[in-house]
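Customer escalation, tier 2.

The customer says the design service returned an amino acid string that "doesn't look like it belongs to this structure." They asked us to rerun it and document both sides in this ticket. The original structure tokens are below, unchanged.
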């Protein structure tokens, strides 16, 4: 299943939490059941996204992660994780830019659990702010991989300034 939520900046400039949605994914049918994870070697893959969109629903910045892990005998026998970033540029060599990014995990082989953390700092200089001092987004994503083939995703975003209608879309599948 995919778990998704949108948080929108409302008319009063306060965040409005949208409902948490559970939706089937194309890979859901091939996902192993929890009970089978303890009995045999099982490989799982997880994808997460943490994105900021403007009021016209144009993605400004995004942090994405993928994790693949194999479980056997109640442990994570191997895990690989990656994080990538994307941002919107304006046609005249302006817009959002990646300032810094981190991507780390605490264990890769024979682990009781694996914790993957990714961060991305973005700046903006363009048509809506020619100084480059007004807008900046920082995304934080964390994924915990468990030896029962389950996972937990958490997200955070920090905005230097915002605007009505901006929306934060986050999810895991």
């Amino acid at each position: 299943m995919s778990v998704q939520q949108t948080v929108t900046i409302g008319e009063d400039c306060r965040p409005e939490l949208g409902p948490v949605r559970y939706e089937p994914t194309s890979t859901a049918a091939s996902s192993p059941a929890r009970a089978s994870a303890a009995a045999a070697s099982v490989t799982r893959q997880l994808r997460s996204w943490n994105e900021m969109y403007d009021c016209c629903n144009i993605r400004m910045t995004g942090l994405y992660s993928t994790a693949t892990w194999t479980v056997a005998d109640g442990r994570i026998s191997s895990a690989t994780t990656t994080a990538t970033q994307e941002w919107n540029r304006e046609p005249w060599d302006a817009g959002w830019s990646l300032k810094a990014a981190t991507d780390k995990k605490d264990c890769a082989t024979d682990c009781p659990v694996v914790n993957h953390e990714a961060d991305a700092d973005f700046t903006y200089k363009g048509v809506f702010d020619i100084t480059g001092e007004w807008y900046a987004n920082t995304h934080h994503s964390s994924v915990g991989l468990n030896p029962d083939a389950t996972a937990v995703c958490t997200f955070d975003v920090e905005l230097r300034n915002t605007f009505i209608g901006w929306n934060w879309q986050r999810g895991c599948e």
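Tier 2 assessment: The sequence is consistent with the input. The CA atoms of residues 50 and 143 lie 12 Å apart. The chain is about 5% helix and 60% strand. Sent an explanation to the customer and offered a walkthrough call.
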